Amino acid sequence: MAGFGRRTISINRKPAGHFVVYSSDKRRFVVPLAYLRTKVFQELFRLSEEEFGMPKDGPITLPCDAAVLEYVLSLL
Length: 76
What we know:
The chain is an alpha+beta fold.
């Protein structure tokens, strides 16, 4: 398609100003970057590092299921 001047769009792209995390049950969440400064996300990242280690090539997985993460996001 590049030869015809068309652009391809990736379905897996995230909006600017957001990051992607996964819950322990493998659900994908797109979260605003502003949430990085919150105490709850800082603690979730700390717990994630303790449980899973630092991600090398894969996504960040948080140590909670999707229901808990949805609840946390609804509070923020």
